[in-house]
Design a protein that fits this description.
This protein is an all-alpha fold. The protein has one domain. It has five helices and no strands. Helix 1 runs antiparallel to helix 2, helix 2 packs parallel to helix 5 and helix 4 runs antiparallel to helix 5. The longest helix is centred in the middle third of the chain and has 26 residues. The two termini are 26 Å apart.
């Protein structure tokens, strides 16, 4: 009998249904971080756990087909560069790193708080992708083989 990678069909089915709810919840936490507890870091961790859920349920080969790992590396680097870019724009426009240079909007609305929602999105992308890539990188090495791939 051929060995299949990943977990049982029950776990895979539950993952297929629940992973999208996990991603939506992570995105919700990121976008509402300036209004409620949460923000970029917490939402990013939730998104990374969604990726990890798929990774554990389906296995490494499925993730290689499902995700473009190189694109995730690029997304992580780009989010860090954009974060610093917003900080530099803050210096140029107001004199302080990460200083708000956008309209603050209406209190308790989604599009309020100036640059904070943008920073939450960038932090969420950075944290979510970075945490998954750490787990991915650790999965490539086998201790019993002396660290070889």
């Amino acid at each position: 009998m051929k060995s299949q990678e990943g977990m049982t069909i029950i776990v895979k089915t539950v993952t297929r249904i629940s992973v999208w709810l996990i991603f939506v919840y992570g995105i919700y936490i990121i976008f509402h971080g300036h209004l409620t507890p949460g923000g970029g870091f917490g939402g990013g961790v939730i998104i990374a756990l969604g990726f990890l859920n798929v990774f554990l349920a389906y296995g490494k080969e499925y993730i290689k087909k499902w995700l473009n790992i190189g694109l995730l590396h690029d997304l992580e680097a780009t989010s860090a560069i954009l974060f610093v870019g917003i900080g530099i724009i803050g210096i140029a426009m107001t004199g302080g790193f990460l200083a708000n240079f956008l309209s603050k909007g209406t209190l308790f609305r989604l599009f309020s708080a100036g640059t904070i929602p943008l920073l939450n999105i960038l932090i969420g992308a950075k944290v979510g992708v970075a945490l998954f890539l750490v787990v991915w990188s650790l999965s490539l090495f086998h201790i019993d083989e002396g660290g070889e791939q």
